[in-house]
Amino acid sequence: MNIAILGTRGVPSGYSGYETFAEELGVRLVQRGHQVTVYAHRTLFPPEKRVEQYRGIRLKYLPALKGKNTSQFSHSFFSTFSVIFSDADVVLFCNAANGPWGLFLRLFGKRCCINVDGLEWLRPKWSRLGKKYFYFGAWCATKFFHIVITDAKGMQDYYKKEFHCDTVDIAYGADLKYAENPNAVRALGLEPMNYYLIASRLVPDNNAETIVRGFMQSGSPRVLAIAGGTVYKNPYEEHLRRIADPNRVRFLGHIDNAELIKELHANAYAYLHGHEFGGTNPALLKGLAYGNCILALDTVFNREVLDEGKYGLLFKKDPADLAEKIRQIEADPQWAQSFRDRSRNRILERYTWEHITDQYEAVFRRLSAKN
User: Fold this and answer.
1) CATH for 2-173+352-369, among 3.40.630.10, 3.40.50.2000, 3.30.1330.60, 3.10.450.710?
2) pTM (2 d.p.)
3) pLDDT digits over 311-342, tens only?
4) Could you tell me if 203 and 123 are in contact, meaning their C-beta atoms sit under 8 angstroms apart?
């Protein structure tokens, strides 16, 4: 099949899970004999970094308006009308915000599916208008795309209840990896097994404030390392820096080096995960795949990934509750190690990229067969 992937910034990229998703899925589809084209932001790839193919994936670079709120929308506009006149058999769009473009794909006879990701309209970082648009986009996705894909059972249930839409449940994936270079974290001023890790964008709905306050209340002798940040001014990050004890909390900034992220995970005493409104979160899967002891916010999505607490501890949205959980794993290092010892088994059970590719390939075959 000739498969087009739209709605990401392009590959390779370390900006978000969507780019990793496009690369990991695309590479495996190419290995299975399919042709895959990923539509990329021309503005993010200067001429010297543009290539016709990356790991077998074809790249098509199209314009995007500059601006946090206009970049992806404008790129999706150009991508939609480009793919309409291409020879793609099926189109995979990412992000519920791109729901309206399904109407144009359908009008021009393109078989299309969409991965809607998380509940963006519930995230506090967006304006009231932004939230309304994301909800509208999700509604459009359920009306215009042939198949809607959700990445967690809890998200599938939500779309059934809210939009009366039957979706296909396909999670995200991860590869098993191990610590190979502990000196990489030492170069950041961290000692293996002597720090806790947050790896996320610093936005309110990832609950870094709850984690920072809980960690400081816990009395842990270790430090908290925060790998996350933005290229633009972030008042929330500034707030976190004001409330954090600089002797116990280290802000590492945005890290897009995959090997360094792996070492940060694999050498941490525990990974603290506060994501609230997404489905199956890539950072949580990395925590499992890289052998972490995990403490995650108690949400329906995190419960699903951690199998109701079998593969990690769940904490309430309350610093005191997290502080108590941290004290428990500090007091019993063998208990913390038991989570590390079995964490990768959860990936093998459900979240390998090969398994995820099997499921997407089946969706694409269903779409292609109806042409």
Assistant:
1) 3.40.50.2000
2) 0.90
3) 999 999 999 999 999 999 999 999 999 999 99
4) yes
